[in-house]
Amino acid sequence: MKTDAQLRDDIQAELAWDPSFTAADVGVTVKDGVVTLSGHLASYAEKYAVERAVQRVHGVKAVAVELSVKLPFDHERTDADIAMAAERALEWNVLVPDGKIRPMVEKGWLTLNGEVEWDYQRRAAESAVRSLMGVRGVSNLVIVTPKVRPADVEKKIHDALARQAEREAKHLAITVNGSQVTLRGKVHSWAERNAVQGAAWAAPGVSLVVNDLAVDN
């Protein structure tokens, strides 16, 4: 078990290792395995990258993000410019179904609305607009509405987990209510938590995943 000081040092080392942002712009405090991030970054893409970097570090139980995006003057864009760029980015992404997602921008904050059949399409839409210049944040409100009916969802998820992470599959409780899946239990890292959630979303017929998994280091 790492001490808070050791965990903070590991996080700072991971931030320094990642070239997609300036580690000196990020403040890190740790208490009982809970990490708080503070500071100002030049883009939402950098903020997202920092969050992912911290979650890669073993020992992190939870992350409180108090980072803000402060765009450089030459990166400022009007809401109309951002909305137009978002529409084009979604249109050009082959994983995003045509005409299914509507972007809306207010003061640099981009909101995605619409319906798709699969979670990977919802995530692809967010990925397509995350790095656009001028974006201060993204709210992904896209709803997953499967056309296929859920069948043996619990078994399919367990089978997928057994293929990908057998150790985790044996210690998880998976509850299926219609097209909603609830995950409970403990995993050993944020990466494992995300992998289990991804396996649940990949099951045919799933429209909502409630991830109550706890990270137990």
Descriptive notes:
The protein is α/β, with parallel strands linked by helices and 217 residues long. It contains seven helices and ten strands. It has helices at 4-17, 44-55, 79-92, 119-130, 153-164, 166-169, 190-201; strands spanning 26-31, 34-41, 62-69, 101-106, 109-116, 137-140, 143-144, 172-177, 180-187, 208-215. Strands 4, 5, 6 and 7 form a four-stranded mixed sheet that branches. The chain has a three-stranded mixed sheet with strand order 1-2-3, covered by helices on one side. The longest helix is centred in the N-terminal third of the chain and has 14 residues, at 4-17.
Please tell me what the overall shape is: flat
Mean pLDDT comes to 91
Radius of gyration: 19 Å
How would a textbook summarize the main sheet?
A: 4 strands, mixed
Q: N-to-C SSE series? A: HEEHEHEEHEEHHEEHE
Distance between the termini: 7 Å
Q: How big a fraction of the residues is strand?
A: 25-35%
The counted number of beta strands is 10
The helix/strand class is alpha/beta
Alpha plus pi helix count: 7
Uncertain segments: none
Percent of residues in helices: 25-40%
